[in-house]
Design a protein that fits this description.
single chain, mainly beta, globular
């Protein structure tokens, strides 16, 4: 069954480029292309030019620089994503998130700071005015 993952004839080449399974411990810098999944323990930095998936068994400390980041496990550090960050219901995230789009599912834990950035201006924060329900009745 696991060998089917390596059968490129049955998959689109852009679908998955690799994964780190449970039981693997990594310290250092990981650079990935395409969609990459981590279900292991890691300390260091990750650079991804596509989609990075931290599975339910992932425990990551460090910094992530990527395009789209999906977190279902544990992450402690700084995430900088060009398009979006998704924090699923099983995730525990502490630290900073810098992204133009953030989704946090009910049940997820996020303890930190979020910096919402414009998609075209990654260094400039976006201010969104919020009105209370009482003001809308006027």
């Amino acid at each position: 069954m696991a060998l089917g993952w390596f059968d490129r004839k049955r998959q689109d080449a852009a679908e998955w480029t690799g994964f780190l399974e449970q039981g693997v411990r990594l310290e250092g810098k990981l650079e990935t292309t395409g969609t990459f999944r981590i279900d292991s323990t890691m300390k260091g930095s990750i650079v991804s030019d596509d989609t990075l998936v931290l599975g339910e068994h992932a425990s990551i400390q460090g910094q992530i620089t990527g395009n789209r980041v999906v977190i279902s496990g544990r992450f402690d550090g700084v995430v900088q994503a060009k398009t979006s960050v998704e924090i699923h219901s099983t995730a525990v995230v502490t630290g900073e998130v810098h992204t133009p789009s953030l989704l946090i599912e009910p049940g997820a834990v996020f303890d930190g700071q979020c910096h919402m950035l414009a998609a075209t201006e990654a260094a400039k924060p976006v201010t969104i005015p919020i009105r209370s329900g009482g003001q809308a009745a006027r």
